[in-house]
Amino acid sequence: MTKIDSSAIVNPNAKLGENVEVKPFAVIEEDVEIGDNSVIGPHAVIYNGARIGNRVKIFQGASVANFPQDLKFDGGRTEFHIGDDTIVREFTTLHRGTHESGFSKVGKNTLLMAYVHVAHDCVIGDNCVIANGVQIAGHVHVEDWVTIGGMSPIHQFVTVGQHSMVGGGYRIALDIPPYILAAGEPLRYAGLNVVGLRRRGFTNEEIKELKEAYAIVYQSKLNLSQAKEKLAEKVEKGRLSKLVFDFINKSSRGIIRG
To answer: What is the DSSP string of 187-203?
Structure first.
């Protein structure tokens, strides 16, 4: 049974699933879809274009699918998607896409802690943890299983690779390759995310393969072009080496240094 507090303002055309709870003074606009068993906290505002999955919890004062902070955007219908089982903590601000992509997105089972900002045209993957105060600029792509420490700003168009972990308070201005730890100012490679990988079932052989791949990139004293050539020789021998090579090869902003 859907439960809407009498002080909440919910447009009658909004589509709410089964057992949705809308708490006091929340506002839900017309072009909104909310899945089953989700909770909208007090004073949260869910704007037109929000597409919210099942079992999503949105805490007090959060803002979902607000107008993008892009001076080129002249209005029109775009969206913000939130996947199933994601938690959006208090005072988080999530901006819908511009017409360049049409949407912004946060995946499934992701935790956005308090005061996180996700700008227009961003894609945040599944099973991520984005800590308090992380500020994500437009067109950023955070892949699956990423952890980002608190108070970190992420420059527009950056990609953060899967299963990586970034320390808190560091400026992320370049792409972060997958499976690694990143820390320091300026932000640098700080080893493989071994603990996280083992928790997620990576084998010793897979971890060894990744260590060898990143030894070429960060410990061989080769420049990046030379390292990519040498890494390409390993691609046919291992799936994970290929993923690392493909990420580095496609990077448009360049990757963090060792």
So the answer is: TEEEEE-HHHHHHTT--
pLDDT digits (tens, 9 = 90+) for 101-127: 999 999 999 999 999 999 999 999 999
Q: What is the pLDDT of residues 52-80, one digit of tens each?
A: 999 999 999 999 999 999 999 999 999 99
How many domains does the chain fold into? 2
Whether 28 and 116 map to the same domain: the answer is: yes
Q: Is residue 189 part of a domain?
A: no
Selected catalytic residue, list 117, 120, 139, 163: 120
Catalytic residue flag (residue 120)? yes
Contacts of 192 (CB under 8 A, 6+ apart): 179, 180, 181, 207, 210, 211, 214
Domain of 83 in residue numbering reads as 3-142
The reply to whether 131 and 227 lie within a common domain is: no
How many angstroms separate the CA atoms of 99 and 142, rounded? 20
Q: What's the whole-model pTM score?
A: 0.97
Is 81 a residue of the active site?
Answer: no
Catalytic, 84? Answer: no
CATH number, domain containing residue 15: 2.160.10.10
Contact 100, 70 (CB under 8 A): no
Looking at the structure, tell me whether residues 128 and 213 fall in a common domain.
no
Residue in 61, 107, 121, 161 annotated catalytic:
121
What does the block give as tokens for 152?
């970190």
